[in-house]
């Protein structure tokens, strides 16, 4: 009698067991009654890596198939974290790992926006983007010299 082979995505087949005893091919078995064999499986481990797109480095981690994974929340100066993506699709922060191989997740960011007050004239500034200063103000009897922020000159 030849035992059938078995396959299941994300798992390694450990063998056929009857009453916690492994049964293998090319062996002689002596049964005195009907028996039911059960397949035993071990969930595979896969490497999960992170492309933070300029954010803080996050070390790869080993994950086990069919277990719950909690993805970290990265940080990046001047940006808000939006989501993780796998194959250009959004991934929930917590999900059941059912990818039958290693995977790299990419961080998606949105540049922060700030309000800048120029003496009553409010302009929006986006982190990392070119910012145009407002027109130079006028005041009778004075020449405009420069804009300053925290002691730094801007012209």
Summarize the structure in short.
This protein is mainly beta and 155 residues long. The protein is built from no helices and 14 strands.
The percentage of residues in β strands lies in: over 45%
Helix and strand content put the structural class at mainly beta
Question: Low-confidence stretches at least 5 residues in length (pLDDT < 50)?
Answer: none
Question: Considering DSSP H and I runs of 4 or more, what fraction of the residues is helical?
Answer: under 10%
Strand arrangement within the widest β-sheet reads 5-4-10-7-8
Task: Tell the overall outline.
Answer: rod-shaped
The count of DSSP E runs of length 2 or more, i.e. the number of strands, is 14
Question: What is the mean predicted local confidence, pLDDT?
Answer: 92
Query: Ends: how far apart?
Result: 88 Å
- State the helix count: 0
The Rg value, from CA coordinates, equals 31 Å
Order of helices and strands: EEEEEEEEEEEEEE
Largest sheet: 5 strands, mixed
Offer a few descriptive terms.
mainly beta; 155 residues; 3-stranded antiparallel beta sheet
Description:
It contains no helices and 14 strands. It has a 5-stranded mixed β-sheet with strand order 5-4-10-7-8, with no helix packed on it. The chain has a 3-stranded antiparallel β-sheet with strand order 2-1-3, with no helix packed on it. The chain has a two-stranded antiparallel ribbon with strand order 6-9. The chain has 155 residues and is mostly beta strands.
